[in-house]
Design a protein that fits this description.
The chain has one helix spanning about 10-15, and strands at about 30, 35, 45-50, 50. It is an alpha+beta fold. The chain has a two-stranded antiparallel ribbon with strand order 1-2. A two-stranded antiparallel ribbon has the order 3-4. The chain starts with 9 loop residues before the first helix and ends in an 8-residue tail after the last strand.
Length: about 60
Amino acid sequence: MAVPKKKTSKSKRDMRRSHHALDQVTVVEDKTTGELKRPHHVSADGYYNGRQVTTDKVKR
């Protein structure tokens, strides 16, 4: 069983965890409705890239 020889310092531990922070969610303005949505996702009214791809309403 692998056991560490030395205690990991708080500095070394925190430097390793520096990439664990959550990033901001990217949003873009929809071309047809002007509302904010995630990029490369269908908007709530069924439009994607300026054209209607589905007639179903997307749940929020």
